[in-house]
Amino acid sequence: xxxxxAILAVTGFVxxxxxxxxxxxxxxxTPVPVTMQVFVVILAGLxxxxxxxxxxxxxxxIGGLSGLPLLAHxxxxxxxxLVGFVAAAPLVSFAAxxxxxxxxxxxxxxxxxxLGCAGLAASGVPAGLPVIAAGSLVFLPGDIxxxxxxxKASRMARKN
Length: 160
Prior knowledge:
The chain is mainly alpha-helical. The chain has one domain (2-154): Arp2/3 complex 21 kDa subunit ARPC3 (Orthogonal Bundle). The protein contains 7 helices and no strands. Helix 4 (79-96) packs antiparallel against helix 5 (101-123).
């Protein structure tokens, strides 16, 4: 029974991450859209075990790169963010299980931003925009808010 519950939880976060990718708002000055994926990745880390959190994001990325309509389709430059999702979710889970949910969430955002910026740098960014501005600074306030909301949502879910 526990295995079935874990499979359903992982599958649920694969679906939620895909839904978060499709809730996207393109910005004219960066190839990276604003999505709800970071919120879901952090929430996965807060709600799942580290292995489950890793699996949810790895399955999401593998499925999307295999051609399933899961990704936000923002181009090759966003591959670093996808790798960041896979790395961040278990990190957040590990920290949350030790009582550091918000710190873990912020560390997850840092991982996503660093790997995302690395991917942008490898693929090139629009002329005149430094990688850090195009790939991180514009998203940082919103992503910090997403961490706070994910922490609150996970606490509310545990109470019910």
